[in-house]
Amino acid sequence: MFSFGKTEEESARLIAMEENYAIISFKPNGTIIHANDNFLNVLGYKLNETVGNHHSMFCDKAYASSEEYKKFWESLANGISQINEFERFTKDGTSVWIQASYTPVKNSKGKVIRVVKFAQDITDAKKVINSANQAIDLAKTGIMKQTILESTQNEGIESLKNGINDLFNIVSTKVDGDLNKISEALEAFQNLNFEYRLNGKLGETSEGLNSLANVINDMLVENKANGLTLDQGSDLLLANVDKLNQSSNEAAASLEETAAALEEVTSTVRNNTENVTKVANNSNTVINSANQGEKLANQTTVAMDEINVQVNSINEAISVIDQIAFQTNILSLNAAVEAATAGEAGKGFAVVAQEVRNLASRSAEAAKEIKDIVENARSKADEGKKIAGNMIEGYIELNKNIEETTNLIADIEMSSSQQLKGIEQINTAVTQLDQQTQQNAVIASETKNIAEITDKIAKLIVSNANEKEFIGKNKVTVKDMGLEI
């Protein structure tokens, strides 16, 4: 086919091409000049069935009559090569694909004198590629469980096909061969429906999605149960916080009143303590006065005894006077008798005797009166002594009572001081407790706010859980946490 004037190397190169390529030559208008055996074998023709005929005998009739096909040969006639994959048809109408280079051959003047086509049959490779494209298109719809059965001698394409088959196999074992199931599951999950499960012979991914759905489902069940429990707990907390808040406010008010009352009591006890101290001081004065009174009573008793001594002396003197008066009276009587006996001479002496007797009588009477007065004085002195003795006993008893009273007052003073100290400590403690209670009231109010927020969060958790569909949704109950409402 290429026997004109070539060197040995060029001839060898052409022979090699003749052996490995399907080669056919045409006139610039597409009329077949010659075809080698490789070409004829691919398309099922004999040489005499092709030479003189037009290239269009290998093409689809619609394509052969198209403007594209016309331009194809015009380009070749103008010296423009056409290299591509082309579909051609065998004698029996079977479609074959070739990888071909339509190369214009020019003379020395640059005019195209023929077109030589070098081609290789790539039908098997094309079938594999088409099958791969179809498989990929099917895979785009989510179907991964498929195998490309076509094969080719082209090692690169065959290796690519095997790689795609391996990929389909790996993916199908991961996702059960149908990605649509995965998409449906993911769409259901996206729509918060976690009741959806993949069924059938599941791949690893499907099993993983089911496991994920189970985990999320369990989490939602737990979440709702926690929400319900938290809601119940927050309701209880709110109720208790309301009570605590009310109690704290009432306690704060009561303690405030108690603090005021205690302050008043403290003031009263302080005044009482001061008064008791004054009484204690006064009792000391009374003791001193009683001691002084007892001393004076003792002195009075002594004085009364001395008076009695003097009275006794007076009585003794009066007795002497009374005796003298008696004797004087006797003597005056004797004198009067003697004067009477003397007669006229004794009249003067009788008068004197009478006067002496009168004086003696008056002295006796006076002594008697003095004796009566002295006896009365003695009686009064004895009475005074008795009274003084009673006074001494009274003062002794008074001192004893005053001492007991003083001791009691001292005890009361000590108790009052201790009581004052205790009440002041209680007052301080109540004041601190009042402050703490006020703080507790504030904390209770803040706790109530937190409890209300917690209650809202709990209800929000339950609401969010109820927005999702999951297995056992309507059977979720409150956890038994030992709460009593």
Automatic annotation (TrEMBL):
Keyword Disulfide bond among UniProt keywords: no
SMART domains: MA (SM00283), PAC (SM00086)
Domain PAC: 82-134
Molecular function (Gene Ontology), one example: transmembrane signaling receptor activity
GO biological process, one term: chemotaxis
GO cellular component terms, semicolon-separated: membrane
Entry keyword set: Chemotaxis, Transducer
PANTHER family for this protein: METHYL-ACCEPTING CHEMOTAXIS PROTEIN 3 (PTHR43531:SF11), PROTEIN ICFG (PTHR43531)
Name of the protein this chain belongs to: PAS domain S-box protein
Organism: Poseidonibacter ostreae
